[in-house]
Amino acid sequence: MSDSEPDNDNWDVEKYRVDYESEEHWELRKAFMETHRENFGEDEIVCLARVFTNVEFLGCRYSNEVMKQIAELSKGIIEKYRRSRQGRLKRTFVGAAEAAQNKVQRK
Questions:
Q1: Do the domain assignments include residue 79?
Q2: Is residue 5, in this structure, part of any structural domain at all?
Q3: Secondary structure letter of residue 37 according to DSSP
Q4: Does residue 17 form part of some domain?
Q5: What is the pLDDT of residues 10-55, one digit of tens each?
Q6: How many structural domains are present in the chain?
Q7: Does 18 map to a domain?
Q8: How does 75-100 read in b/e, with b if 16+ C-beta sit within 10 Å?
C-alpha cells in the first residue's frame, strides 16, 4: 500500500483527541474524521479535520482550493452542528477601541 492510499482499519480516531480541546470541538472534529476516513489516508484526514475546525471555530482562512475542499467535505456535518447551536447564548467580541468608547459614553 502506498502512502497516498487510505489505510482505514488500522487507526483509532480517539488517539487524536487533545487535552485542551473542548468536548464540542472534539465531537465536531471526530465526526469529520469518521465521516471521511474511508476516502483519505490517516494523515490527510487528520490534517483536513484540523483545518475544518480551525475554519469553523477560529475563523482561519486557507487557499481557495483548500477552502472549497473543506466546504464540500463539511456538508452535512456542519449543518447538523450549527442547528444544535441555534438558541444558545452567543459571545460577542468587541475591540479595545470600541470597548473604551462604550465605557466613555456610559459615564
A1: yes
A2: no
A3: T
A4: yes
A5: 789 999 999 999 898 999 999 999 999 999 999 999 999 999 999 9
A6: 1
A7: yes
A8: eebbeebeeeeeeeeeeeeeeeeeee
